[in-house]
Description:
alpha/beta
Amino acid sequence: MKLHLYANAPAAAEACAAHIVxxxxxxIAGGRPATxxxxxxxxxxxxxxIFARTPFAWDRVHLFWVDERVVPPTDSQSNYKLAxxxxxxxxxxxxxxxxxxxxxLGHEEAARRYREEIRRHFGLxxxxxxxxxxxxxxxxxxxxxxxxxPGEPLIQDTTGIAxxxxxxxxxxxxxxxxxxxxxxxxxxxxxxxGDDKAAALHEVLEGVYRPAEFPCQIAANAExxxxxxxxxxxxxxxxx
Length: 240
C-alpha cells in the first residue's frame, strides 16, 4: 500500500486522476482495452472533471461502476448521472464502452444483469471473479466503501461479483461490487478527502483489521493499492 498526501481535495483528486490515467495507459499499451470501475460522491466529481479535459484514448476503456443507487439514471443521486454530466458526456465517451447498472429494472434484476454483464465482458464462468485493471473507491465517514456499510452481511462474501443491498441508514436499495471483486482488482485507487473522514481513516489504515466494522479495510493494504488523501482526512494518522 502506498499513501500519498496532499494539501487539499483538488490536489488529491488531480493526483488520483493522473494515476488512473497512467495505469489505464499501461494496460492499453499491452494491446487490449482497459477496464475501470468508478465510485460516486463529492470527491470523484473533481476527478471526473479532470478526466473530461484530459486527452486520452477513452475509446480503449470499458467503464463500470463500483456501486450505484437504485434510482432512475436521470436522478440527481445517480452515480451514472454524475459521471455522465461531468465526464462521459463532455469527453464524448463511447456509449458502447459504458457498462452501467440498469437501475430502472429494480434492484434484484439490476444486480443480476450487472453480474451477467461483467461475466460476459471478462469471459467468466459462474465461479470466476473479474480482474479490473483499476477500481477507484472512496470512503464514507463511517468507514464504508462501495455500498458495503458497517454490519452488512455481504462483507463476508468473497466469491460473488455484485449484489443488491438494502442500506438501512439511507433507506435505499443499492447495487454494489462485493469484496471478492474488490480484492481481485489489479490496482486500487482510493480517494479520501475531508476532515469528516479523519477518524475512520485512522481506524482503516492504523487500526486492527475489522472489515465488518470498517469495510474500507477490504483490499486497503494490498500491494497494488494507492491512497490519495488530503491533509484534513489524514489529520488523525500517526504515520504520515
